[in-house]
Amino acid sequence: PGTSSNTQVYYNALGTSHxxxxxxxxxxxxxxxxxxxxxxxxxxxxFSDQAVAPGAxxxxxxxxxxxxxxxxxxxxxxxxxxxxxxIGRSGSLAAQATAHYSGATWLTFNHQTVAGPVPxxxxxxxxxxxxxxxxxxxxxxxxxxxxxxxxxxxSTDESWYVLGFLNNVTNEKILGGAAAAGPNMYAYLDPPxxxxxxxxxxx
Length: 203
Hints:
By secondary structure, this protein is an all-beta fold.
């Protein structure tokens, strides 16, 4: 005989929630070769009636009324500038800079935090997979701004293109997701600074 273990997961209805907000977008053609795009979003998203992880008595139920919904920052925005260079009959060359801003937000619906002395900044460098983070970590993501750059050449007949890109220029460490398990907070990060080339064609 060996040992065995059981894992139990409980799901409870989320009750009701409210989401309201406004989004503004503007596209401006400064010249025939210069374009600016700007978008701003304000959202207020909260649970209004929720109870999960019921306790031994109703008084011990964990309730999340008025908790903000995860991954919904109050403020977010995008801005981009694109310039197309004149290279005559050789095709077109367009350079673009894009900035994305996200306000602070929780990544879990119950605003998880693990007790301990280590601050949220000690997250390591793993990308795309969950990694353990020592006590003191939280599922609260601070506001951040991410900058991307690209340069695209398009053939004269627009049948093919080559695109070079540099994403997350300032190499920001951005929490993509988080969850608490026992004494640790498990988290993963969005990709760090990365670059590459894409080639496309129309047939």
